[in-house]
């Protein structure tokens, strides 16, 4: 009789603890690159190369990934990608490589608002983690309260906001407003880009039991 109860307990424990969360879309990712005049063209090119290297390690297997690229200054261009397997990462990498440098002023609020209202507006699954990676020096043309409104809206929608400060003169107050908390996880400098893969994996593993980078 004792063996019977032990079997029941083990069976319940196994079925409960070993369930894999189902996330057909493992990640909804928006990458936002600042190419305004306060960023030098050579710095912009270095960031693009770093992003391309990150996607060398993409490993989505039989799950799907949605990705979007926003390139902005006082205007913005948007590219969206559906990545059903690892082979499609080359399309994404080629698009990153071909992104032009704009110069001119910075409309950071517009880029964040577009991500919130256009790119994350379509439901891709209740469990799908939503992530923004923003590369900027944080020097906006808008009032900081306008940027805070957009980032607060994104955070309330459970979007993870990573901000990578790059450029010669960083506006740390703005970067702190943009990044999710804790800042030691979500606010990085250019030398810490290599840790992005691990940080994003932590999110997708905890939510969907699956990593997206190897």
From TrEMBL:
InterPro entries: ECM_Assembly_Org, VWF_A, vWFA_dom_sf. PROSITE patterns: VWFA (PS50234). Residues 1-18 form the signal peptide. Keywords: Signal. Coiled coil: none annotated. SMART domains: VWA. The keyword Oxidoreductase does not apply. It comes from the Eukaryota. This is VWFA domain-containing protein. It comes from Brachionus calyciflorus. The lineage of its organism: Eukaryota, Metazoa, Spiralia, Gnathifera, Rotifera.
């Amino acid at each position: 009789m004792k063996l019977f109860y032990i079997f029941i307990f083990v069976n319940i424990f196994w079925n409960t603890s070993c369930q894999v969360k189902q996330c057909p879309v493992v990640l909804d990712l928006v990458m936002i690159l600042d190419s305004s005049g306060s960023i030098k063209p050579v710095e912009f090119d270095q960031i693009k190369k770093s992003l391309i290297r990150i996607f060398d390690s993409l490993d989505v297997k039989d799950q799907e990934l949605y990705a979007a690229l926003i390139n902005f200054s006082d205007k913005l261009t948007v590219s969206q990608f559906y990545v059903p397997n690892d082979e499609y990462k080359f399309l994404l990498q080629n698009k990153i490589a071909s992104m032009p440098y704009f110069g001119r002023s910075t409309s950071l609020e517009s880029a964040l608002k577009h991500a919130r209202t256009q790119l994350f507006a379509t439901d891709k699954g209740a469990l799908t983690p939503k992530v923004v990676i923003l590369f900027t020096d944080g020097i906006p043309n808008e009032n900081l309260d306008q940027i805070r409104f957009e980032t607060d809206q994104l955070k309330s929608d459970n979007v993870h906001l990573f901000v990578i400060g790059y450029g010669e003169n960083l506006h740390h107050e703005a970067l702190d407003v943009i990044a999710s908390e804790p800042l030691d996880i979500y606010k990085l400098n250019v030398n810490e880009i290599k840790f992005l893969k691990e940080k994003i994996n932590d999110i997708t593993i905890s939510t969907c039991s699956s990593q997206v980078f190897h």
